[in-house]
Write a structure and sequence with these properties.
The chain is α+β, with helices and mostly antiparallel strands. Helix content is 29%, strand content 36%. The chain is elongated and about 55 Å long.
């Protein structure tokens, strides 16, 4: 797996504010834009708030990784899964390197005839065995999960 992340350079935004905008080019040929927050106290350090923060993309990638697993596990078990979303909420350490210290993942899984035990098992398998991102972040963060099941 490869990825190249490039700073787009100083761009003028709202007067003399420089941007902290980066473009990630993935090995699969896709691009992702990342930017910093507007920092009124340190405009030279801030971004223009035009894209997700880098750590937000880490959190989003983790959600994508585990949701992918949950859907795949349910499909392989021949369950009629029709939808899956996961809302992640997190906390970070107050001092650098400001790692994630807690992450809660709330899954909403929709399907026909799905059982709570099948969904619970799929989430557990993702978190304990398959989701590289969750397992990696679990080294610094307490990760908790919950879910709701919707018939449909």
């Amino acid at each position: 797996m490869e990825c190249t992340v490039s700073w787009t350079g100083n761009s003028v935004n709202s007067g003399s504010r420089s941007r902290m905008k980066f473009i990630a080019e993935t090995g699969s040929g896709h691009t992702l834009v990342m930017d910093g927050a507007v920092d009124a106290d340190k405009p030279e350090n801030g971004g223009a708030n035009l894209a997700p923060r880098p750590m937000e993309t880490v959190l989003a990638g983790t959600g994508g990784c585990t949701a992918y697993d949950v859907v795949l596990i349910l499909k392989r078990g021949r369950h009629d899964v029709r939808g899956c979303s996961v809302k992640l909420s997190s906390e970070r350490a107050p001092a650098d390197p400001k790692v994630f210290t807690s992450i809660h993942m709330h899954f909403v899984v929709t399907g026909r005839g799905l059982t709570a035990s099948a969904v619970e098992r799929a989430i557990a398998l993702s978190h304990d065995k398959y989701c590289s991102a969750t397992i990696m972040l679990g080294k610094t963060a307490k990760i908790t999960t919950s879910f709701e099941l919707i018939e449909g």
